[in-house]
């Protein structure tokens, strides 16, 4: 299993309960494809580098997980179509 990190930027226009539910859906997607979440880091509301969908701010979350090499592709496909996810990125972490 390899170590990965998923960065997700959620819309700042949604309510707290809806944002928490969306984060849970993202985490469930990771576990559904064999990922084992090791850490979730919430950075909170931050200013975006540039406007996305007429929004200047978003909520940042970093999810570290262990998974097989095929899992990130499947996770990306599911997260890509989720509403209120402005941006996402999965990177493989060095095992140094």
Structure description:
This protein has 96 residues and is α+β, with helices and mostly antiparallel strands. The chain has two helices and four strands, in the order E-H-E-E-H-E. 28% of the residues lie in helices and 50% in strands. Strands 2-3-1-4 form a four-stranded antiparallel β-sheet, with helices on one face. The model has no long low-confidence stretch (mean pLDDT 92).
Write the layout of secondary structure elements.
Layout lengths: L1 E10 L4 H17 L3 E17 L2 E13 L3 H10 L4 E8 L4
Antiparallel strand pairs: 1-3, 1-4, 2-3
What's the gist of this structure?
The protein contains 2 helices and 4 strands; from the N terminus they run βαββαβ. A hairpin with a 2-residue loop joins strand 2 and strand 3.
Notable characteristics:
4 strands; Alpha-Beta Plaits; alpha+beta
What fold name stands as the CATH topology?
Alpha-Beta Plaits
pLDDT average, as an integer?
92
Number of helices: 2
What is the count of structural domains? 1
Span from first to last CA? 15 Å
